[in-house]
Amino acid sequence: MNKLLVCLLVLALIAVPLFAACDEDGVTTTPPTTPPTTPAEEEPVYGGVMRVVGGTFPSVVGYPPEFSPTDSIYALPCIERLCEWDEDGVQIPVLATAWVVDQDNLTITWYLREGVTFHDGTPWNAEACRWNFQLQLDGGRLPYGQYVESLEVVDEYIFRMHLTDYTWYMIEQYGWVMMISPTAFENAGDTLEERIDWARSNSVGTGPFQLVDFQRDVILVYEGNDDYWREGMPYLDGIEASFIPDPVTAAAKMEAGEADMWIYAQSVQSILDLEEMGLTVNRGTGLSGMFWSLLPNSSDPDSPLAIQEVREAIEYAIDRPAIAEMLGFGEYEPLHQIASQDWPGYVEGYDPRPYDPAMAEQLLADAGYAGGFEISIMATDAARDAVSALQAYLGDVGIDVEPDIADFGRYFTALFFTGWDDLVLAASGINPDATDLFVHFGPTPMTFMTGNIYKSPEYLALCDEALDPQYADAFEAMDTIRDAVMQAGEDAMIIPLWRDLSVAVMQSYVHSDYFMIHGVIWTPYDTWMEPH
Question: Do the domain assignments include residue 49?
Answer without folding.
Answer: no
